[in-house]
Amino acid sequence: MDQTAHHSRAPEDHIVGVALAATWFVYLVGGLYVLGPVLGVGLAGLLFGRSYLSGSGVQTRSVPAIPSSVWVWIVGMLVMLVALEMGHINQNLGLGQTIKSNIGWAKGWALLALFPLAGACLDIRLETLIRASGWVALGTLLLTPAFLIAPMIGLPEVLFVSPLKLVGGPGPEFFAIQLYSFEPMDGTTRLRYFTPWSPAAGMIGNMYLIFALSDKRKVWKWLGVVSALAMILTSKSRLAIAAALFIWPVVIAAGEAKRPAMWFLATIGLLTLTPVAQAIIDWIDGSLNSIKSMRADSTRVREMLGEIALDRWWNEAPIWGHGVVERGPHAVEFMPIGSHHTWYGLLFVKGAVGAIALAVPLVWSLIESALLAMTRSRAGRIAFGMVLLMAFYSIGENLEILAYLLWPGLIVMGIAARELQSAARTIDPDY
User: Of the candidates 237, 231, 169, which has an alpha carbon nearest to the alpha carbon of residue 393?
Assistant: First the structure.
């Protein structure tokens, strides 16, 4: 075994760090939708190659065993592929559509397993991802004023659409360099940064908020927090605001759960707040209603899309789904049935099998990462926040279509799984 190689920085660590730090540069050439799948497949290829070489006696870095939670994601996404094939067979969608849908699976659902696999089995450091996310935050902070001023001085919404759209994708918005957008319901300006739409910017802003809060460098930490809050607020996403108010306090509380002082303070706090509990409940209820009413028309369309998806799933294809997305009627502005909601989308396209294939790994990772977060592990905290974010946004976005932007958090989920596996082996060598 080459001991020198163990102490040098691994090539995958360089690759991931550069890829994340270069987010804004890659976005400006419209390449983010290409970068995510290429990076996921490339890292998986590196892992498989290293596993093959280590078995043939060639000196290379060792490859640890795949943690149980990563196996759950791998099996879950393979079941998702089986559901896709069965849906296409049952609906007689033809070979061409089946091939196209398989490519879509590889660029979406497969990434939810490949990136945790890379994080768990390759030498990718948590610190590399945190530091690289700081550069993304700096770029976001520098460009936000320009995005806000752009509509005031008459600059166009979309500067250009990258020719990389020729590689194929869900739509031109995934390759567009866009300064801002207008909310169709009320005409207000919303920012989407390097994401395909504003609510997605709110989700990614929350992911970078989780990363920033784990940065040990004070200047970069607060730069990251301010940058992430700018993304969340200027996206004007109701779900993003609710996620920001909910996720990070839960993550911090989980990290402090084993400290007696935390429980003592929590008990004192509860006793103090008991007399005003009803007033607090009324305030929370009013705040939630206020957030929900910010765009009542959007809420109505989303609810109708969900109702159509559930009705057609249950009555037409409950087990394997319809295989592909279909456009809805005029009443929902011809939006795809089941869009804006991972579970409705899964039930409609891949049936009950597809929904279970996501639910099991999500719950598994939620429990494991919460346990690791309680040990005050930084990787555990970020992974716990990431899984909470995915669970939160599963009711407002289609997770697979944004997997190409979620990859830094998915890699940390793998790093956390590796850390938990190492801890288990320290306690029980036979694990």
Answer: 237
The string of pLDDT tens digits covering residues 171-212 is 899 999 999 988 776 778 899 999 999 999 999 999 999 999
Provide the 3-class DSSP secondary structure of residue 269.
helix
Nearest Cα to Cα of residue 411 among 34, 70, 68? 70
> CB of 392 within 8 A of CB of 247?
yes
Contacts of 119 (CB under 8 A, 6+ apart): 410, 411, 412, 413, 414, 415, 416, 417, 418
The two structure tokens encoding residue 203: 């989700």
Crossing angle, helix 238-255 and helix 198-213, to 10 degrees?
20
Reported as a single tens digit per residue, the pLDDT across 111-167 is 999 999 999 999 999 999 999 999 999 999 999 999 999 999 999 999 999 999 888
Token duo for residue 247: 């996720």
> How many Å separate Cα 127 from the centre of its chain?
19
Q: Is the Cβ–Cβ distance between 119 and 45 less than 8 Å?
A: no
Q: For residue 323, is it left (φ>0), alpha (ψ between -120 and 50) or beta? A: left
Tokens for 328? 């809805």
Spell out a b/e string for 68-86, using b for 16 or more CB atoms within 10 Å of the CB, else e. ebbbbbbebbebbbebbeb
Pseudo-torsion of CA 265, 269, 272, 273, nearest 10°? 180
- Are 187 and 157 spatial neighbours (Cβ–Cβ below 8 Å)? no
Rg value, the chain, Cα:
22
DSSP for 134-171, written as a single string? HHHHHHHHHHHHHHHHTTTTT--SEEEE-GGGGG--S-
What is the tens place of the pLDDT at every residue in 262-308? Answer: 666 666 666 666 666 666 666 666 666 665 555 666 777 778 888 89
Burial 244-253 (b: 16+ CB within 10 A, else e): beebbeebee
- Specify whether the CB–CB gap between 238 and 295 falls below 8 A: yes
- Claim: this prediction has a pTM higher than 0.85: yes
Residue 178's SS3 state is strand
Nearby residues of 122 by Cβ (< 8 Å), 6 or more positions away: 10, 12, 43, 46, 47, 50
How would residue 68 be classed by pLDDT, with cut points 50, 70 and 90? very high
User: Residue 364 is encoded by which pair of tokens?
Assistant: 């598994």
